[in-house]
Amino acid sequence: MALMTKEAYLSSLRKLDHRVFIQGERVENVPDHPISRPPAMALAEIYQQAGQEDMKPLFTAQSHLTGETINRFTHIQQSVEDLTKKILMLREMGRKTACCFQRCAGLDCMNTVYAITYDMDQELGTRYHNRFVDFMKYIQSNDLVPAACMTDTKGDRSLPPSEQEDPDQYMHIVGEKNGGIIVRGAKLHITGAVNSHELIVVPTRALREEDAEYAVSFAVPADTKGVTFIYGRQPSDTRRLEDGRSDVGNLYYGGCEAMVAFDDVFVPEERVFMKGEYPMAGRLVELFAAHHRASYGGCKVGVGDVLIGATAAIAEAHGTEKASHIKDKIAEMIHLNETLHAGALASTGKGFPTPSGAYAVDPLLANVCKLNITRFPFEISRLAQDITGGILVTMPSLKDQENPEIGPYMKKYLGGVKGVDSEKRIRILRLIENITLGTGAVSYLTESIHGAGSPQAQKIMITRLADIESAKACAYKLCGV
Ligand code: SF4
Ligand code: FE
């Protein structure tokens, strides 16, 4: 079974016996809880797409490991075309869900660990790569979702892992027994964690010799003993608890993150992919960052498409769509959105094979893409809110419209141009509210700043990767110095 159906995925989540808490209460079935259902449905939509004939060229690939047709979200990229198709697939998913659909962090992590375990074996004489290949075959053949668990809690940010007062502020090895290791720590902001079958843990930063016990990478099933998920809150998430869900804006989908605690978790040796090889940690982080920073030029652009569409629709509903300043603002939104996409596609166009054969994106362009992502969705959102007018944040609930006493006022006074009744107008505005202020803003705005690394991390990489010396040489030559 190399391709799972959407229904099989959702029932596999229900069968998973992982310890998930939402607002202080244990949740047995993640896809059935009103708050966590939309994120599960967003991820499930990937399975739906991969099963559709017209989407197969984009959403499936041929595994170089098993020869089977697999979901592209489990594929180790073998060419520039693979890198590019991933970005196009992510844009398509962003357009379908208008949120973070969560499966790409794991994909980017698998591509990273695949390449780094190969390098490690070549350079340090370890034997991790074949283990990871076995893990990949298992993931691909069963079409599973592994979450990428990277960000540590970090404690005192001015101190390295080994100098923290509490040594558990970074994931570390605390013991060894019966052919495996025992690990402790917690990973934060883990995208799609509660919707994942497996967890791949990797270091969060470059490490020194003193930090060797923190140089650890492994994979465990999500329902492993000692693993606990604490669900992240989002603005307006409890609107999902209201009847009819008329005010949620995005009726079907959402993104989700969770804190994942590892309390003395046993990892069998065959699932360990790094154990003390501290010089490789920084390289792993940089490769993952490049992959995932490019990914944002797919997913966020797809969400941007939805926001631009909703904004154009509301301008029509208001009868302002022909005003020159509205046309100009929408053109500006499109320009910004396509600039983000261009950065991602440029990074894949200049992609190259790593020694393992897995392809990597151009890291400078991927970082440039992501630095733009930390800014442009905010500007696109500002323009959208400019065009909506203040009604975006002052309109009553659609529930008010159902009340026979006050509903007539809403119908009379909150409609738009002829043919646009108050409900249609409010629904479009609620979607814009969701993306720019509500649960959707977690995916579209704050995640755009901090996901895949905060802006300063991109600045550091851009400075390091740019060839300033050769640029200086060009300048010297031309001015005769
Ligand atoms: Fe995928 Fe985008 Fe979510 Fe990252 S932020 S997991 S690239 S949808
Ligand atoms: Fe993300």
Keywords:
481 residues, alpha+beta, Butyryl-CoA Dehydrogenase, subunit A, domain 3, 6-stranded mixed sheet, 16 helices, 15% strand, binds iron/sulfur cluster
Question: Main beta sheet, described?
Answer: 6 strands, mixed
Q: Mean pLDDT, rounded to whole units?
A: 97
Radius of gyration: 23 Å
Q: Strand order of the main beta sheet, please?
A: 2-1-10-11-7-6
Order of helices and strands: HEEHHEEHHHEEEEEEEEHHEEHHHHHHHH
Estimated share of beta-strand residues: 5-15%
The coarse silhouette is globular
CATH-derived architecture of the domain at 283-479: Up-down Bundle
How many beta strands in the DSSP annotation? 14
Task: Specify the number of helices.
Answer: 16
CATH class of the domain at 283-479 reads Mainly Alpha
Which ligands, by name, code or SMILES, are bound? Answer: iron/sulfur cluster, fe (iii) ion
Low-confidence segments, ≥5 residues, pLDDT <50? none
The end-to-end distance, rounded to whole angstroms, is 66 Å
Considering DSSP H and I runs of 4 or more, what fraction of the residues is helical? Answer: 40-55%
Task: Examine the coordinates and then state which fold CATH places here, giving the name of the CATH topology of the domain at 283-479.
Answer: Butyryl-CoA Dehydrogenase, subunit A, domain 3
Structure classification: alpha+beta
CATH superfamily of the domain at 283-479: Butyryl-CoA Dehydrogenase, subunit A, domain 3
Provide the fold topology.
Blueprint: H1 6-15, E1 19-22, E2 25-27, H2 37-50, H3 56-59, E3 60-62, E4 69-71, H4 80-97, H5 104-124, H6 129-142, E5 146-149, E6 172-177, E7 180-191, E8 198-201, E9 216-221, E10 227-231, E11 257-268, E12 272-275, H7 281-318, H8 324-349, E13 352-353, E14 359-360, H9 363-373, H10 376-388, H11 398-402, H12 407-413, H13 422-436, H14 439-450, H15 455-465, H16 468-479
Parallel strand pairs: 1-10, 5-8
Antiparallel strand pairs: 1-2, 3-4, 6-7, 7-11, 8-9, 9-12, 10-11, 13-14
Helix pairs in contact: 1-2, 4-7, 4-8, 5-6, 5-7, 7-8, 7-9, 7-10, 7-13, 8-9, 8-10, 9-15, 10-13, 13-14
Bound molecules: iron/sulfur cluster and fe (iii) ion.
